[in-house]
Amino acid sequence: HRKFGYIGVKGLKCLLAEGLVDGFTVNEHSPSFDCEACIQVKQEHSSYLKHVSTQSEHPGELTHTDVWGPAQVTGM
């Protein structure tokens, strides 16, 4: 499973059926298996807000900046 890029049970069964791999068996009665890496990746996370309402009332109250540099610009 790990050596094949964390492929699923269905994919492993397909590889075996096509004769593309050997040296292991897949339990036909087991729909899945426990893999610590896969379990951690599939853990739920809290969703991000789709829209954040931040509205200023006065000019200059809310400022957005982007920090980048120093730029090596020779000319415009």
Descriptive report:
The protein is an all-alpha fold and 76 residues long. The protein has a domain at 1-25. The protein has helices spanning 9-17, 36-41. The protein starts with 8 loop residues before the first helix and ends in a 35-residue tail after the last helix. The model has no long low-confidence stretch (mean pLDDT 78). This is GAG-pre-integrase domain-containing protein. Residues 52-76 are annotated as: Disordered. It comes from Paxillus involutus ATCC 200175.
Keywords:
single chain, 76 residues, mainly alpha, 2 helices
Order of helices and strands: HH
- Radius of gyration, Cα only, in angstroms? 26 Å
Oligomer state of the chains in this structure:
single chain
Total E-strand runs: 0
Largest sheet composition = none
- Global structural class: mainly alpha
Distance between the termini: 54 Å
- Tally the helices: 2
Low-confidence stretches: none
| Mean pLDDT across every amino acid position | 78
**Shape, principal axes of CA atoms:** elongated
Q: How much helix is in the residues?
A: 10-25%
- Strand percentage lies at under 5%
Organism: Paxillus involutus ATCC 200175
Region (Disordered): 52-76
Protein name: GAG-pre-integrase domain-containing protein
